[in-house]
Specification:
- The chain has 120 residues and is α+β, with helices and mostly antiparallel strands.
- It folds into 2 domains: 43 residues, no CATH class; 72 residues, Winged helix-like DNA-binding domain superfamily/Winged helix DNA-binding domain (Arc Repressor Mutant, subunit A, Orthogonal Bundle).
- A 3-stranded antiparallel sheet has the order 3-5-4. The chain has a two-stranded antiparallel ribbon with strand order 1-2.
- The radius of gyration is 21 Å and the shape is elongated.
Length: 120
């Protein structure tokens, strides 16, 4: 009557096909008491994205990435605490370099700035 469905089940089949073609795991369907949910998984490897740059990173930057993996984000202050014998400007440039390489994403401004893995 409302013509929302082209053919019964067609959308579900298409989800499976499109996810498989894109190299993603198949969708997960969950039947709940009064509803259902569909989970679509994305096959992303944040660690792999970082690995391709590891040869071009210094030890401080690798420490920063490991910190972000454990804590989900890093601030300038936390980075200074990780590398107490290095100047603040050098550390700021390290983080800017990781942003320019597409490894980290800068969130916020000034004192509220934090960095997260771009593919996370």
């Amino acid at each position: 009557q409302f013509k929302y469905i082209e053919e019964l089940g067609l959308g579900v089949d298409r989800m499976f096909e499109d996810m498989t073609k894109a190299g993603h795991p198949p969708p997960k369907f969950e039947d709940k008491k009064h509803s259902f949910s569909v989970t679509l998984y994305n096959k992303r490897d944040a660690a792999g994205a970082v690995r391709e740059w590891e040869n071009d990173m210094n030890e401080r930057q690798i420490k920063a990435i490991e910190y972000v993996r454990r804590n989900r984000a890093i601030t300038n202050r936390e980075y200074r605490d990780l590398c107490p014998h290095v100047g603040a400007e050098t550390l700021r440039l390290d983080l800017a370099d990781l942003v320019n390489k597409g490894i980290l994403l800068k969130i916020g401004e000034k004192r509220g700035t934090r960095y997260i893995l771009k593919n996370d």
